[in-house]
Amino acid sequence: MSKEFDVVVIGAGPAGYVAAIRAAQLGMDTACIDKWLDPDDKPSLGGTCLNAGCIPSKALLESSELFHRAQHEFADHGVQVDKVGLDLAAMQKRKSGVVSQLTGGIASLFKANGVTSFAGSGQVVDSGEVRYTDHEGKEDTFKAEHVIIASGSEPVALDIAPFDNDRIVDSWGALEFDEVPKKLGIIGAGYIGVELGSVWSRLGSEVTLLEAVDEFMPVADRDVAKEGLRSFRKQGLDIQLGARVTSAKANKKSVSVEYTQGDDSQKVSFDRLIVAVGRRPHTSNLFAKGAQVELDDKGYIDVNDNFRTSLPGVYAVGDVIGNPMLAHKGMEEGVTVAEILAGQKPHINYDVIPAVVYTAPEMAWVGKSEAQVKAAGNDYRIGQVPFAANGRAKALGQQGGFVKIIADADSDEILGVHMIGPYVSELVQEMVVAMEYRASSEDIARIVHGHPTLGETVHEAALAVDGRPIHFPPPKRKK
C-alpha cells in the first residue's frame, strides 16, 4: 500500500536533510529516504559529510594536530611533557563519538520538525512516484507532489588501483586505520589528499602524495598554493607533482606502485595506499527505466535555475548536480529548493561560496583568484599582509601565512580574498559577508577590528590595498 507525502527527499546528506527539515518547517508533509549504514550496519543520517568525510576527518585533524603540538611545540610555551604517547584506538573512538552525536542530532531534528525518516534506498519511478526499498529488501511506493534528489557523490575509483578496503582504500577507509602506516601513499594532492596526508604524517607516517597535474592545488590562488606547498613539504609531506600512477598492486603486507614523472619511471612500495582523486555524482540505481531524467556529459543531473530536472515535479540539489562539491553549498541549495516549493523567491550567490582546506596552516578563499581577475581583463589592486605582523598569531606561535585581498582598481569592490594561516576557516567568513553586500576594501579598512585578534590581519590587508598598512611596511613607491 503506497504512502503519500507532499515532499519525498532521497538522501540525508547535508543537502538532503536540510531540504527535508526546511520543507517540513514550511508546512509540507515530508519524508526522507537514506541508505547509509555505519560500520555496525546501523542506519546513520548525515551522508558522506557527517559519516565519512567532513566531520570525522576534522576530528582526526584536530586530534593529530594536538599530538603533533605536544611533541614539537608545547615546550616552547613552557609546558613540559615527559613523554607523549599515541593511543590511536582512543583517538578513533573519540572521532566515532563525534560522528555519532551529530548523526543522532539529525534524527532528533527530523523528529522535532516532523520529518518521517526511512532507512533504505529510493528510486524515482516517475513524476510524483518513488520506489522505496528497505535494507531487508521489502519494497513500497511513495506518492509525492515533489521529489528532491540529494543522493550526493562517491569517491572516484581507478582501474589501475582497485579498492580492496585493506591495503588500497578510499577516503572513508583512510579514516578507519587501526594502526599508523609506516609508509603511506596517496594518489591525489587535492584538499582531501592533503588533509588525510596531514593526519597520518602528524601521527608518524612517512607520507608521499602523487599528483598527476604539474601544479599544486590549481583551484587555489597561486600565492596561497605556493605557500601551502612550501609549508606542507617543510612538515615532511613528500608531494610529487606531475606524477602519473600507472599501476598499483596490493599484496598481504604492502602495495607496489608504479608511476611516471616526466620521462622517468618510478617504483615505490607503501604499507597502505589512499586513492583521493576526486568524487563523482551518485546516480546508480537512482532512476527506474521509465524515468527520463537528463544527465550532463559528466554524469551530473541537469537542473534549471530553480533546481528542476527534466522530469516534472522532480528536483535535485547538492553534489549530484555538480561543483563545487561542498557541504555548505549543498545545504543552501536544500534550503533554497524547499523555499521555492513553498512559493518563496530565495537566491544563492555562487560567486561568494567559501572554500576551506583544514590543514595546518589552514587555507581558505572566496571569490576570484588573481589569475581569474587578470583573465577577465579587470584592472585591480592587491593588499597582502603576513600573519608574522600579527600579535595574536605570534602569541599562538603560528605566524606563517598571509591574507590577500584583491579589489577592483576603479570601484574598489572586493573581487577575491585568499588566506593561508591560523584559523582562516573562520576569518574568511567576514569576507563572505562583505562580498555578499559588495563591500569595498575601504569598507573593511574603516571597520574597527578587535585587538589583539587574527582578524586584524584582514584589516591590515584591506589597508594595504590602498598602500597604507599600519603594522606592516607599505610597498615601496615607484619614483
TrEMBL record:
It catalyses: N(6)-[(R)-dihydrolipoyl]-L-lysyl-[protein] + NAD(+) = N(6)-[(R)-lipoyl]-L-lysyl-[protein] + NADH + H(+). Disulfide bonds join 49-54. GO terms for molecular function: dihydrolipoyl dehydrogenase (NADH) activity; flavin adenine dinucleotide binding. Residues 353-462 form the Pyridine nucleotide-disulphide oxidoreductase dimerisation domain. NAD(+) binds at residues 188-195, 211, 278. Binds 1 FAD per subunit. It is an enzyme of class 1 (oxidoreductase). The active site is at residue 451. Keywords: Cytoplasm, Disulfide bond, FAD, Flavoprotein, NAD, Nucleotide-binding, Oxidoreductase, Redox-active center. Pfam families: Pyr_redox_2 (PF07992), Pyr_redox_dim (PF02852). It is found in: Cytoplasm. The active site is a redox-active disulfide bond. This is Dihydrolipoyl dehydrogenase. It comes from Salinisphaera orenii YIM 95161.
